[in-house]
Specification:
One of its GO terms (molecular function) is peptidyl-prolyl cis-trans isomerase activity. With 310 residues, the protein is α+β, with helices and mostly antiparallel strands. It contains 13 helices and six strands.
C-alpha cells in the first residue's frame, strides 16, 4: 500500500509538471483549448482496446474521432481541476488511486493472458468444425417469380380485388403468368429481372413474402400475399438446398474464435484462483460501513428483516 500511495503522489506531481510544459511539448498528438493528448498517451489508450477489435477501431474514422474527442474532454476537465487545486482533495486522491488500481489490474490481467502458453488454434478450429459440421451449412434458398399489385395508386380494397382476379386467371391459365406479370406488375425491378428472384435466402424479403415463398411446393402459386408493398402472387420455381462450407472457408473465423475463447478461459481461470483465496471481512466492519453511509436505522431495518425472514 505504501508503494501504491507513493506512486500516486509521484504521478500527481508528474501530471502537474506535464501540464505546465504542454506549450513546449513537441510530441502533441491533438490539442483543444487546455486539453492536450500526446502521441504516447494516445498509444496507451489504443492499448486499452482489446486486441481482436483494435485494428477495426483504428480504421473506423468515426470511432477514432469519438475516442480523441473524449480524451480531449478529459484532458480539459483535468486541467481545470488541477488549476483549481481540486486534485488535492483527499477523497479525490483516493478515487484517483482506485482508478489507477483498476487500470493496473486490467493491464496485468491482459499481460497474464498474453504470456500464457499459446494453444494450437488451427487444430482446435478444425476439431470444432468436425464436431459441428451442421453449423457450417449455407442456408436453403429458393428461386421465385412474383406479380405485385401495389397500393401506391389504389386503395387496399382495390388492390386486393385486382390481385384476386389475377390469381383466378393465373390458376386457370398458368402459362400466362409471365405475360400477366409484364402487363400488370407494379414491381419496378421487372424491367431487369422479369419478376424473378434467384437464391432468395431467409431475411432477403419482407416476412409475409418469405413465409409464403418457403411454404410453397415447386411450381405452385400462392394466393395473394399482403405486404407493405401491396399484394404478391408468388410462384416457387426451385428449392436450392444448403451446402456444406469447407473448413478452409471458415478457418479464419474459427481460428479467431478459438484464440478468443482460449484467452478468455485463461483469464477466467486466473481470476477464479484469486477469488478462491480467503475473504477477510468482518460483520463489524460491514456494519460500520453501512452506518457510515446510511445511518444506524439502515442496520436496524436490516436486522428486523433478517429476524422476520422477509
Amino acid at each position: 500500500m505504501r508503494v501504491t500511495i507513493s506512486l500516486l503522489v509521484a504521478l500527481l506531481a508528474l501530471s502537474q509538471t506535464v501540464s505546465m510544459a504542454w506549450a513546449e511539448d513537441d510530441d502533441v498528438f491533438a490539442r483543444r483549448g487546455n486539453g492536450v493528448i500526446t502521441h504516447e498517451e494516445f498509444d496507451a489508450r489504443v492499448e486499452q482496446i482489446p486486441p481482436e477489435y483494435r485494428n477495426n477501431v483504428i480504421r473506423d474514422k468515426g470511432r477514432l474521432r469519438q475516442i480523441i474527442q473524449k480524451m480531449l474532454m478529459n484532458s480539459q476537465l483535468a486541467f481545470d481541476a488541477r488549476e483549481d487545486g481540486f486534485e488535492a482533495d483527499p477523497v479525490v486522491q483516493l478515487r484517483m488511486q482506485l482508478a489507477a488500481e483498476e487500470e493496473l489490474a486490467n493491464a496485468w490481467a491482459e499481460h497474464v493472458v498474453l504470456q500464457s502458453d499459446p494453444a494450437d488454434y488451427s487444430v482446435m478450429a478444425e476439431e470444432y468444425y468436425q464436431g459441428n459440421r451442421s453449423m457450417f451449412m449455407t442456408p436453403e434458398t429458393v428461386d421465385v417469380t412474383h406479380l405485385l399489385v401495389g397500393t401506391g395508386d389504389r386503395t387496399d380494397g382495390e388492390a386486393r380485388e385486382k390481385a384476386d382476379l389475377l390469381y383466378a386467371e393465373i390458376i386457370a391459365q398458368p402459362d400466362r403468368f409471365q405475360a400477366l406479370i409484364f402487363e400488370n406488375t407494379d414491381d419496378p425491378s421487372v424491367s431487369t429481372n422479369e419478376g424473378s428472384f434467384k437464391n432468395v435466402k431467409p431475411g432477403d424479403m419482407v416476412k409475409p413474402f418469405e413465409d409464403a415463398a418457403f411454404a410453397l411446393e415447386v411450381g405452385a402459386f400462392s394466393e395473394p400475399v399482403k405486404s407493405r408493398f401491396g399484394y404478391h402472387i408468388i410462384r416457387l420455381d426451385a428449392r436450392n438446398p444448403g451446402k456444406q462450407r469447407s473448413f478452409e472457408d471458415v478457418r479464419p473465423q474459427l481460428v479467431n474464435r478459438m484464440r478468443k475463447e482460449h484467452r478468455e478461459r485463461v483469464k477466467n481461470e486466473y481470476l477464479s484462483s484469486l477469488q478462491h483465496q480467503p475473504l477477510e471481512l468482518t460483520e463489524e466492519d460491514l456494519e460500520a460501513m453501512v452506518i457510515r453511509h446510511f445511518g444506524p436505522d439502515a442496520v436496524e431495518g436490516a436486522g428486523q428483516e433478517k429476524e422476520t425472514g422477509e
